[in-house]
Write a structure and sequence with these properties.
Number of helices of chain B: 30
Strand content of chain B: under 5%
Mean pLDDT of chain B: 79
Low-confidence stretches of chain A: 1-34
Shape of chain A: globular
Helix content of chain B: over 70%
Largest sheet of chain B: 2 strands, antiparallel
Shape of chain B: globular
Oligomer: heterodimer
Number of helices of chain A: 14
Helix content of chain A: 40-55%
Number of strands of chain A: 14
Order of helices and strands of chain A: HHEEEEHEHEHEHEHHHEEHEEEHHHEH
Largest interface: A-B, 50 and 58 residues
């Protein structure tokens, strides 16, 4: 695995070298020296303009940590390292020099201050402590509740990835990562088209047991997960509430009837006895996708709110189970 | 004749409710079309037979069990307000389940009923042990309430620290009839039906008990055995219910009351009437819950609380006409004679704690010698640590004084902003600002808290005005509003669990992220309100002797009382607005002070102020220290320290009463 990373890094460096040259030439023609270094962010809370890239970053949400790792930058501090390692399984690793700054909800302000970061990046829900954080360093909070962000969460994932990368001066590197990812999506799409699936419609759910009864979080069309799966040639069967701010709606076994003709793709934590409980359930066994054996479990550890590395993990897992 | 007619109409209503309930479901399209299509559609039939029917049956069983448990507990304690939830049995059972789910998951999976039973029994034993021989109804209800508070705060602590492990318990924790298949019913029905049959057989025994203990003994009955039987039956019913559907409150209060209103007074007939009424009530509540939201499951327990809260207010209102003030002068001990020396030493402790707290930054301590320099030159220490430390002290003081005022005015040693429902009301409005409108700017959170606190107080005062602000009525109103408030909070949390972590932290109360502006905000009320309180100190002293004495001494009792409550609510609402719902300090600080300097306000007030400050600053320090760099909310630390002390306190005040 390390070799792969190293190799791709070398490739990246090479690629970016080329791209930078391109940029320089184009900007010289524009005759605008400032535009090259000036970083302008749109639709963020806090600081939206930087005159030069930042090196030491504190990331307060896991998706931002992922974005930094994609950009090839190790943050100086992140919130809840333990949780990140447990929930976000991606093709990149945190250095063990990265400091833990406490929980995501109440990060430890003094620990952040001691790290002397150049910039702090977080989410809208941390706005409460914006003024405190701004005393330490410029703060960028991504407004994931903005209507335009909610409308297409995949596009928003790419936007914040680009923003984060630009803040650390890796805007171009990340473009290659994104195009690599989109190439991968297209490849997967070709592969999937050749498969003889019972249906190309899907319902993607993250499920857990409540009171031994399963609860299904069903991802709506605006969610990042749904967009990615649609890009590999599948079609989301869930057409209700395309503006759900969280990107999913909830359902029980009965509610799945509406989507029973689709492929049932699920991620469930490994220790959850959900499907054992459902084994002898008459209502569940009467559902079409159960009868057709169109159930695809992609295991736990897929962070459905992550960036493109998480999405890559997602499609790897999905293709693995679908191709079988 | 009238009785059986009423019962008949209940049965009819029950059948109608059954038809509506069974037709509800995510795959259903309306009552009438469901009942016409279900016979042909195999899939609908599957749902009907295997998910909806179990839900209906478990609802009937649970409703019946809760109603009968409540009725028996009311007979045992001769208290119309007794029920499995008001006596703390539910909270105890729930705490045990959460505890074992985290630390002994295998036990929690295999012996759920044993766990809830143990929890329920422990809670019930604690309540009876603490109440002792004085069977004062209000005291029992209050003790049960405090036990509930204790267990709930333990549970909240566990949930916050083990968010991922317990997330599945949220819905169950507020009670839900959600059933996967028939297994819940299969598990519960033998227990519930057998226990109910035993209760019917023993009905005569309980009838005698109601005649009074002397009469019962005179008629040759062993009263102790009867009581043990009654309690066992009630706890068994409650625990089985908690195991399958979670803690659902208020059915055990409303149903027996309705049955008595119908005119049933013998236990055998009361049990049967309660069976039907309880089942109908719970099914009705479940219909409402799913009417409000079909997609994401909402807790039915919250719905019963929203219906039951006002009911409790009504009951309290009725009791207000018959009961007179029973609370007396709150006594304390004068252990410390030299007040000035005591105050000096307390101030010294505050100072030492302040220095300790100021020297701890994030993960390490600064040495004492370097501290002054660091304070002056390190901007972050000056910006974050200094205001936070002083806000903790000031808020602690405000909460202490607020509690002292409420205890004096209510002449009730267990009074506090949280008991009066003020904290709950403030929390609801603040939570709405956090959860329901996530786009709203954060300034709405404290504003919401203030509005909520005052509105709740307004309603509570309005309803208790007719009884001349009787202490008991006020407390009962407060309890009722707290219940409604926490029901709304539970609904909000369940509905938006993406932000539950943030809401939970706020609910637990935390001095996190306080700034200089918060410090100024907390200095203002102290500067304005504390002098007023000092000015009226002697009047407050008089008021604590009771209405008759006060009026005799020329004090307008009602007016003074209103004024004091206003002051207390303002203080506590402002502290809720700044640090969230930190409880217990308002209870603890005045008590510790009273144990040391006695009940005289002139001595009590300064002692309370500083002890309140000490409590919150230590809680804040430990919260930052224990799991650094992770922070534990100060409110949680306070409840963990405060709970054992409060138990001791309860035992003590009740002993005094029994003499």
């Amino acid at each position: 695995m390390k070799k792969v990373i190293a190799l791709s890094l070398v490739l990246l460096v090479g690629l970016t070298g080329c791209m930078e040259k391109n940029d320089e030439s184009s900007e010289k023609s524009n005759d605008n020296e400032n535009a090259k270094t000036q970083i302008e962010l749109e639709g963020v809370i806090g600081t939206s303009s930087f005159d030069k890239p930042k090196e030491k970053v504190v990331a307060l949400e896991w998706s931002i940590v992922e974005e930094l790792l994609i950009s090839g930058v190790q943050p100086v501090g992140i919130a809840d390292i333990e949780g990140f390692e447990k929930w976000v399984k991606i093709d990149a690793k945190l250095d063990n020099t990265v400091a833990d700054v406490g929980n995501r909800v109440e990060p430890n302000i003094e620990v952040i201050a001691k790290l002397q970061p150049d910039v702090i990046i977080g989410m809208k829900y941390q706005e409460e402590i914006l003024s405190e954080l701004e005393k330490i360093a410029p703060v960028v909070l991504y407004d994931n509740l903005d209507p335009s962000a909610v409308e297409d969460q995949y596009a928003y994932t790419l936007k914040t990835l680009r923003d984060t990368a630009r803040i650390v001066g890796k805007g171009d590197d990340v473009e290659t990562e994104i195009s690599n990812f989109e190439n991968k999506l297209n490849e997967t799409k070709d592969n999937i088209e050749q498969l003889d699936l019972n249906s190309n419609e899907f319902v993607f759910t993250q499920a857990y047991s409540v009171n031994q009864a399963p609860t299904f979080r069903i991802f709506t069309t605006n969610s990042a997960v749904s967009h990615v799966l649609e890009k590999i040639g599948l079609k989301n069967k869930v057409l209700d509430d395309p503006q759900a701010t969280s990107g999913f709606i909830e359902s029980n076994v009965e509610g799945l009837v509406k989507y029973q003709d689709a492929l049932f793709i699920h991620t469930v934590q490994e220790d959850d006895p959900l499907f054992d409980n459902l084994k002898d359930n008459v209502a569940w066994n009467g559902l079409q996708f159960v009868k057709n054996n169109d159930i695809y479990g992609i295991g736990g550890g897929v962070w459905t709110f992550g960036s493109i590395y998480s999405m890559e993990t997602l499609i790897n897992h999905v293709t693995n189970v679908i191709e079988k | 004749m009238k009785k059986s007619f009423q019962l008949l109409s209940y049965i009819l209503l029950f059948v109608v409710l059954g038809f509506v309930h069974l037709s509800q479901g995510q795959a259903s399209d309306g009552i009438f079309s469901f009942w016409t299509t279900v016979w042909e559609d195999e899939q609908q039939m599957n749902f009907f037979l295997h998910t909806r029917l179990p839900r209906f049956v478990i609802g009937c069983l649970a409703g019946a069990a809760l109603a009968i448990a409540g009725m028996l507990l009311q007979s045992m304690t001769k208290n119309p307000l007794a029920s499995a939830s008001t006596l703390g049995i539910h909270a105890g059972a729930y705490f045990f389940v959460v505890f074992c789910t985290i630390f002994f998951p295998s036990i929690a999976g295999s012996y759920p009923i044993a766990l809830t039973m143990i929890g329920g029994i422990i809670a019930a034993l604690t309540v009876t042990f603490l109440v002792g021989k004085s069977l004062d109804p209000v005291r029992i209800a209050l003790t049960g309430l405090i036990i509930t508070m204790l267990f709930s705060s333990f549970t909240a602590a566990l949930q916050l620290l083990f968010e991922n492990e317990t997330s599945g318990l949220f819905l169950w924790g507020s009670g839900t009839l959600l059933q996967l298949d028939w297994s819940g019913v299969q598990f519960a029905w033998p227990w519930i039906i057998t226990t109910i049959i035993i209760a019917i057989v023993l009905g005569r025994r309980f009838d005698l008990l109601l005649l009074g203990e002397e009469t019962a003994i005179g008629l040759g009955q062993n009263v102790i055995i009867s009581k043990i039987l009654g309690w066992t039956i009630a706890i068994t019913l409650a625990s089985v219910t908690v195991t399958v559907v979670g803690p659902i409150g208020f059915i055990g209060i409303i149903a027996p009351h309705l049955v008595r209103l119908m005119g049933f007074h013998l236990h055998r007939s009361m049990i049967i009437a309660n069976f039907i009424t309880g089942a109908a009530l719970l099914i009705g509540a479940d219909i409402l819950v799913r009417f409000v939201s079909l997609k994401s499951e909402l807790p039915v327990g919250a719905m019963t609380a929203i219906i039951g809260g006002p009911w409790l207010v009504y009951l309290a209102f009725k009791m207000g006409r018959t009961t007179k003030t029973t609370a007396g002068v709150i006594d304390g001990e004068v252990r410390i004679q030299k007040l000035s020396r005591f105050i000096l030493s307390v101030i010294a402790i505050v100072f030492a704690l302040t220095v300790l707290s100021l020297s701890f930054g994030g993960t390490s301590f600064t040495s004492l010698i370097e501290l002054p320099q660091e304070l002056m030159h390190n901007r972050f220490v000056w910006d974050f640590r200094v205001p936070r430390t002083f806000v903790a002290i000031l808020i602690g003081m405000m909460m202490g004084v607020s509690g002292l005022l409420m205890q004096t005015v209510l002449r009730n040693p267990l009074a506090d902003a949280s008991v009066l429902g003020v904290t709950s009301g403030a929390s609801v409005c603040a939570m709405i600002a956090i959860l329901a409108i996530p786009q709203a700017p954060h300034i709405f959170v404290p504003i919401g808290a203030l509005v909520g606190g005052f509105v709740t107080m307004g309603i509570v005062l309005f309803f208790s005005a007719k009884s001349g602000y009787q202490p008991i009525i006020l407390v009962l109103m407060g309890v009722a509003f707290s219940a409604v408030g926490s029901a709304i909070i539970q609904i909000l949390i369940v509905r938006s669990n993406t932000y539950a972590g943030q809401a939970l932290a706020w609910l637990a109360g935390s001095t996190y992220g306080t700034s200089w502006s918060d410090l100024i905000l907390s200095l203002l009320p102290i500067a304005i309100l504390f002098p007023i309180i000092v000015y009226y100190l002697h009047t407050f002293d008089i008021l604590s002797f009771g209405d008759e004495v006060s009026i005799g001494l020329g004090v307008n009792a009602s007016k003074m009382r209103l004024g004091m409550i206003l002051l207390a609510v303002t203080l506590s609402s402002i502290s809720v607005a700044i640090v969230g719902a930190i409880g217990f300090i308002g209870l603890l600080a005045p008590h510790i002070a009273r144990q040391m300097v006695g009940p005289k306000m002139v001595r009590l007030l300064p002692a309370t102020i500083f002890i309140g400050g000490i409590l919150l600053i230590s809680a804040d320090f430990f919260g930052r220290f224990i799991l650094a760099p992770k922070e534990v909310p100060a409110g949680m630390i306070i409840s963990l320290i405060g709970a054992p002390y409060l138990l001791y306190l309860l035992k003590k005040t009740n002993q005094v009463k029994a003499k």
